[in-house]
Design brief:
382 residues; alpha/beta; 2 domains; 21 strands; binds pyridoxal-5'-phosphate
Length: 382
């Protein structure tokens, strides 16, 4: 199949699959709202493309990691509620408040910086208190909540819209001990805040795995990343779901990554392929040179390990993954032509390559496989 679209590689975003996944989560979550987590270039799916689909679906909330991501959305005209889930440096507070980006507050310093910025701008800084419940990443230890609440009472520029926390060990296990402990810590923190007069309109704790497994974690809002993109957070999440007798969500992968055959060559038996001469042909072989490499996010550990799909057949990667190229063996695939479509991730005919397969070969997780697809590669909604 020829791919004459003016691009040498592209990422296809399947809008139907996205809406299907969103519906699956909405059914599970009931009255709890969905925040589409679009950090890391929407997990490699394209920040603006996924923000557009989220807007079309009527989602009110987007979650990003950084000020830059938030500003990119604002500049592109997205006026949904955007929460920066990650780090905003003290000198970025003003830009965040100016653009009406919500920030998480996780210590006195960032709270005060946001208040100062709001004062200068004569606005209010909308914040979500991030509570430490056991992940030991960003978050206010429960013991320090008292001093934070006292400080907030002195800062009229601060509007507390939410309180949140994040699970540490929900994807990696079928044991629910640690998430339950974090949930209990979260509830304790919420009670403490409310008993101390803090009104909290939006409480949120759940990520994809929690939304799939633990209705107790739903509260007002669920921050859904990977699941919206049609991927399971882990095998353990699926097993836990089945062990509980729950019907697993019918998630459909949203992303396919494709390119074209850049050159075809026939080499004699005994030829070395690529850097380091790590592969030597055992027979006369036909190779497809494919214009994708580790710069694009095709991990170098896939060298001599992964396969790509051409004309619905598997073509084994031979030799090392280069910065901008890979070579694949097409000796047994009849009729391959220059500029035929190549699938690096996704389906071609009856064959498919999943993010989980590539992750397993690369010694990582599906999250990393998709988020590391270079953001310069065009994303095309299909
Ligand atoms: C704070 C926070 N909330 C929500 C999410 C979404 O998690 P998931 O992609 O597993 O749904 C993430 C992702 O890492 C996160 O860091």
């Amino acid at each position: 199949m020829k791919a004459g679209n003016g691009m040498i590689q592209w990422v296809e975003i399947d809008r139907k699959a996205f809406f299907n996944n969103l519906d699956e989560f909405k059914k599970r979550l009931g009255r709890t709202e969905v925040m589409a987590v679009v950090k890391a270039n929407a997990y490699g799916h394209g920040l603006l493309e996924i923000a557009r689909l989220s807007r079309e679906a009527g989602l009110n909330w987007l979650g990003v990691n950084s000020l830059e991501e938030g500003l990119t959305l604002r500049r592109a005209g997205f006026n949904q509620k955007i929460l920066i889930l990650g780090y905003v440096s003290l000198d970025q507070a003003e830009a965040a408040v100016e653009a009406d980006l919500r920030c998480v507050a996780y210590n006195l310093e960032n709270l005060k910086a946001l208040a100062r910025a709001a004062r200068r701008l004569q606005k209010r800084a909308i914040i979500h208190l991030k509570v430490e419940t056991g992940t030991n990443r960003q978050g206010i230890p429960v013991k320090q909540l008292g001093s934070i609440v006292r400080e907030i009472k002195k800062l009229p520029e601060i509007e507390v819209e939410g309180v949140s926390s994040h699970f540490a060990n929900i994807e990696d296990t079928t044991d629910d001990y640690y998430p339950k402990r974090q949930l209990a810590n979260f509830i304790e923190a919420v009670h403490f805040l409310e008993e101390n007069g803090q009104v909290i309109p939006v409480k949120h704790l759940a990520c994809s795995a929690a939304a799939i497994l633990f209705p107790e974690t739903f509260f007002d809002l669920a921050r859904i990343g990977l699941g919206l993109y049609g991927l399971w957070p882990s095998k353990e999440t699926l097993i836990s779901c089945q062990q509980r007798g729950q019907e697993p969500l019918k998630l459909k992968p949203v992303l396919s990554w494709r390119t074209k055959v850049a050159q075809i060559k026939t080499v004699p038996a005994g030829s070395y392929i690529g850097y380091g001469c790590t592969y030597r042909t055992t027979r006369r072989s036909q190779l497809a040179v494919i214009p994708v490499g580790y710069y694009d996010g095709y991990d170098r550990s896939l060298s001599n390990a992964a396969y790509v799909l051409i004309k619905g057949h598997r073509a084994q990667v031979r030799g090392r993954v280069c910065m901008d190229f890979i070579m694949a063996d097409i000796t047994d695939i009849p009729g391959v032509e220059l500029e035929d479509r190549v699938t690096l991730l996704g389906t071609d005919g009856r064959e498919k390559i999943t993010a989980e397969q590539l992750a397993s070969l690369a010694g990582t997780i599906n999250y990393e496989i998709v988020t590391r697809i270079n953001q310069l590669i065009p994303r095309v909604i299909v």
